[in-house]
Amino acid sequence: MDPHSDDHDLIAAVAAERVEALRLLHDRHAPWLRARLLRRCADPDLVDDAIQDTFVAVWRGAGRYSPRGEDAAGWLWTIAARRLSSALRRPSGRWIGAAAVLDTDARVASAEEAVLLGVEHGDLGGALSRLSPELRAVIQATVLDGLTVREASRLLGIPEGTVKTRLMRARAPAARGAGMTDGDWHIPPGLLERYLEGALDPVNVMSLEAHLVRCGRCRTAVPADEAWLAASWRGVSADIARPRPSPAERVLRRAGVPEHLAKLLVATPALSRAWAAAVAVALAFAVTAAHLTDEGFLVFLTLAPVLPTAGIALAYGRWADPAYETYAATPMAGAPLLLVRSVAVLLTAVALTTLAVPLLPAATAAWLLPALALSTGCLALATRVPLPVAATVLAGGWPVVVTAVGLATDDRALPFRPAAQVLYGGVAALLALVLYVRRHRLDPAEPR
Q: What pTM was computed for the model?
């Protein structure tokens, strides 16, 4: 691969899965991306993670890049800013707005800075300098960094409505000086050094960064730590060599679930396609029965609460999980992993059942509290007997009890009436307390 290839050619080669093209793209752009991200986050480790995630995303999404739609450097910066925004959802991250870098009135701009401001923004530079720090911070987050209103709201610690209001307030003075000028000017070494040291005022920071995105010569002038660059590439190459996470794992991670926990959850045997298909078939049978016979509606109400219990029985254990020996060596082995997976199975089964409810002759949620009571009871009983035995007893006993109560009272719907729902709620709460007290006895790996 020619090291002098332009960015568009390199991204096209990355789309063809040429690793050497990604390496060239990384070495060319990682230094200036890192310098710019470090002005937005106080944690260099988070910044380094965001850089690695950026180029992993480029590896996986290079085919979606359109050279006609946007500049390559701007495309890379948008990805990097969003990766950092995602990383900053963790409490350890702290976003640094340009307006918080240095008080504009605390120093006199140098001649170089004045030239920079005029070259990059023309009259807009003066308009930006007249904005308050709060308005400039919003302009930076939304316009320069490409964040959404919601992301800017979270990072700046202000409501979304306030972000929109400040954008509207900043729009008028910015529009009055909106003519940008171009030329052959490049960032002098001394000015770049002050930027890297954090010694530029906020308006000139915004100007310099806007120039960096459009000027390849100035981007290459940003110094690169060769040791850091090599370490960053090792991280990127290791990530792109891993199997891509499944869609379910990606959804969990976007929802804030830690990576290791997301992997353990998606590996739950009861959440396999076979189990989901079995649940769907059982629900289809129950819905069909509800339409064909007068008593069919009760078939659905009787079957639906059992489905989560059956899934919990298959959530963890040497009898159910082929990878049990591997997970048994992790800190989450035993009760913690079973409880986490049980919650995941319960939520999945409830979601599938909820999707089936609109297909019934009449909508109902009478199955929900019985399902919660049976699931909690299964785990509580598993503190005394093996989990499969607990699940079999409750899953088999529930239809028997429902049928017996109906025959004894001549009211087959009695187990699903409001009074019974109150009972199920109380029983579920009591069993949850029992489970909490006896949680140290919940070890699905050991027979009882």
A: 0.52
